[in-house]
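Why does residue order matter? Because the sequence determines the fold. Keep that principle in mind as you read this record.
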Amino acid sequence: MCLNIEKSFFVLIENESIKHGAYKKISQSMYTKGEVMEEGQYDAGKKVGLWKFGIRQLGSSQGQYFNDRKIGIWNYHNANKKLNHKYDHSNNLFLFKSEWINQCDCVVIDNERETRIKPDNLPLFVGGEIEMYYHLFDLITPTHEVITQRKSGVVLISVIIDEKGKIEVKDVYQGLKPNFDTVVLRGMKTIPNEFLPAKKDNKPAKVRCYFPYAFKSS
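Structure:
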């Protein structure tokens, strides 16, 4: 699998496997070539200070890190540069949040049995849909078959998100091409557990959701 990125960083003299100092990640994708995707500082292998993330097609975010953890207030913007989320990571508090753009399909799981009941509130990824999909950008690349056959469409991935916001990626519910579906599924399995759980009747609820990954052939 090809990663369409270029990285620029420094390392410790005594251990060249540990990043230390200024860091920059530049996209080499055909759609975003030359864009700075990440920019910040490392201190002995851990993110510190101000970091900026962004892809023109998806959106951007920025905020402070301390000891490799997000702290303070982070702002998350969509592709139109409108504020999507403002989140206080030090106090685990939303200061502003827009509606989930995608409105993915979800149903409640009750006593391990899937129902047809919709949750009152969808599970919410801190930073929004844009932040959730951002880290997949350099993990999911088009395979030879979707390029040569100029395939476009949506791959739906079945996931379960429990009452604590923990995600379990299950399988491909709707695919585009087998090899590409496998790449998407593998990428989706790297989504971090940064969800707020769905709610039903003002209580956290376990749900099955179908997350879409859209691909458009050039």
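The two ends are 19 Å apart (CA to CA).
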